[in-house]
Each structure stands twice: as structure tokens, then as C-alpha cells.
Design goal:
With 307 residues, this protein is an all-alpha fold. The chain has twelve helices and no strands. The protein is globular. It starts with a helix and ends in a 20-residue tail after the last helix. It is found in: Cell membrane.
């Protein structure tokens, strides 16, 4: 493998992992608060479409990101109402939102973009960090990314520090482990769970926006291709810990990037099998062969004071 090929592989792996990292950090907080946010893929798809539409209409990718996050927050708010206030089955709610998001974005994409679907959507240019971007191999891979990619890495640190050192993080962990004990300790369980779901919605919105206006500069039907499910699996894979979840997200990203590396190196490996690799890893994680961390005891358990 030449230095150029290695640099392209590293850069592609990080780029493909970034939407999973963003969504995974949000899902981690939601699950630590006791809410399984299974609608993550639908949230990302909604944000990807909304960001692409807003960026296309206004010509501003910044406005695109804001609109994408806002659209995702609306979905997250309704998810919280159903899961927390109305205590609906979290699995059913998540599946329902995913189906709704796929159908709605497909319909709107065909109605709005239609013959304009080949147009390039205004997106973010790559930032070349002076001094660091000239480092061989690592420079082009790590220091020639879009601004959203660096925000994604910052959010990993923010999520870790929040869960470990802040009173809000302590409340999230307490609610996720034993909501009744947390309630007796004076913690507003429903509020914490609402904030956890909204945090997941915010980061899923950034992840979806990254896919459409910071990576491909376009929107296609079903473009998340299960990235939200991979993010959920990364949380399980990572044992509900931020840094291990980051490692799992990177593993999925680099496994996806192998589909570009193998043809470049003239390796006789079917591309279809490489496309399948991240999902095979996810299957192993869900099956319990890896990621032996203990899930929050209160995950998916509805809470109502006095019951």
C-alpha cells in the first residue's frame, strides 16, 4: 500500500465514521438516561433531507445544518412525548418513526427536487489546517476535513466530560440505572429523559446534515443506509462508554472504507462482501460476541411516579 492509498483510506474511514460518531454520542446519552432511541436512522434521514433542501434553497450550508438539526429536534420531541410522557413501547415508536421518515423524505425528494436531483447542493469545503495538513499520510487524512468533522470529534470529548463530571451527567446515569431511586433523590426523571432524547436528536441532526452537505453534497433516497442502526450498535459494542463507542464507530467507518481500498490495491475481493462487512460486525455485536458491557438497568423501562 502506497502512502497516498493509506492517506485516502484513513481520510475516507474517518469521513464515513463521522455521521455514526455524531449519532452514536447522542444515542449514548439517550440510552444512559433509559430511552432506547431506535428512530435514530429516521432522524438522520430527516436531517439529511432538511439540510440538503435548506442549503439548496438558500445557498448557505450553515443554514442547511441549522434547519437539519431543527427538523431532527422536532422528531426527537415527538419521540420523547411518546416514549417518556405517554410511556409507549420504545421499540414500536422507533420503528414507526423510521418508516415515516423513509416514506416522507422519499415523497418530498421526488416532489421538490425531481428533475433537479442531479444539481450539486452547496456544501462545506474542506479545511486545510496550516502546518498539520502537510504531514505525510496523517495530514491529508486527519487535517483536511470539513468543519463538521472536527465538531464531531469535539462532541465526543463534550459527551464524555458531561457524563463523567457534570451534575447533569450524574443525573442521566442515575435515571438510566434506577429511575425510582433517582426520583426519590429529587431528580426530575421525565425532564432528564426528555433532555437525553433531545441531545440525541441534536447530534443525529448534525450526523444527517454531515452526510448530505459535508460529504456527498447531494441527497438520495434512503441515503443513511442503516447508519443510525450502526450508531445504536456502536453504543452496545462500546459497552455504553464514550471512548469505546468512538472506537466502535471508527471500526464501522473503516470497514466501510475498505470497499474503496480493495479495488485501488487490485485485491480480488468482491466489493459486495466489503459492503456487507460493517453490518456483519454489527450483527456480531448485537449477538453478544463482542461488547460485554452492562446496559443501563432502566433502559426501555417506562417510569411514572407512584407506580
Amino acid at each position: 500500500m502506497s502512502e497516498d492509498q493509506l492517506a485516502v483510506f484513513l481520510g475516507s474511514g474517518l469521513r464515513l465514521a463521522m455521521p455514526i460518531i455524531l449519532a452514536g454520542m447522542g444515542e449514548l446519552v439517550s440510552q444512559r438516561a433509559g430511552v432506547l432511541n431506535l428512530s435514530l436512522d429516521g432522524m438522520m434521514l430527516t436531517a439529511a433531507f432538511a439540510a440538503a433542501w435548506a442549503s439548496w434553497v438558500t445557498g448557505s450550508p450553515v443554514i442547511g445544518v441549522l434547519v437539519g438539526v431543527m427538523a431532527c429536534l422536532i422528531v426527537a420531541f415527538f419521540q420523547a412525548i411518546l416514549s417518556v410522557t405517554l410511556r409507549a413501547n420504545q421499540l414500536v415508536v422507533g420503528i414507526g418513526f423510521n418508516i415515516l421518515a423513509l416514506g416522507a423524505t422519499t415523497f418530498l425528494y421526488r416532489e421538490i427536487f425531481g428533475p433537479l436531483s442531479r444539481d450539486t447542493i452547496p456544501g462545506f469545503a474542506k479545511l486545510h489546517i496550516p502546518g498539520l495538513s502537510e504531514i505525510p499520510v496523517i495530514g491529508p487524512a486527519l487535517f483536511q476535513q470539513t468543519g463538521l468533522a472536527y465538531i464531531g470529534l469535539i462532541m465526543v470529548v463534550v459527551t464524555w466530560a458531561m457524563l463523567k463530571y457534570t451534575s447533569f451527567g450524574l443525573a442521566v446515569r442515575a435515571v438510566g440505572e434506577d429511575p425510582r431511586a433517582a426520583d426519590k433523590a429529587g431528580i426530575n426523571v421525565k425532564l432528564i429523559r426528555y433532555l437525553g432524547v433531545l441531545y440525541a436528536g441534536t447530534l443525529a441532526g448534525l450526523g444527517g446534515a454531515f452526510m448530505s452537505i459535508a460529504d456527498s453534497n447531494t441527497f438520495t433516497e434512503g441515503m443513511t443506509r442503516g447508519a443510525g442502526y450502526l450508531a445504536i450498535t456502536a453504543v452496545i459494542f462500546g459497552g455504553w462508554a464514550p471512548w469505546k463507542t468512538l472506537g466502535a464507530c471508527l471500526l464501522f467507518g473503516f470497514a466501510t472504507a475498505l470497499q474503496f481500498l480493495a479495488p485501488a490495491m487490485n485485491l480480488n475481493i468482491p466489493v459486495a462482501s466489503l459492503l456487507m462487512l460493517p453490518y456483519v460486525l454489527a450483527l456480531f455485536a448485537i449477538a453478544g460476541f463482542v461488547g460485554k458491557g452492562r446496559q443501563p438497568s432502566g433502559l426501555t423501562l417506562a417510569f411514572e411516579r407512584g407506580r
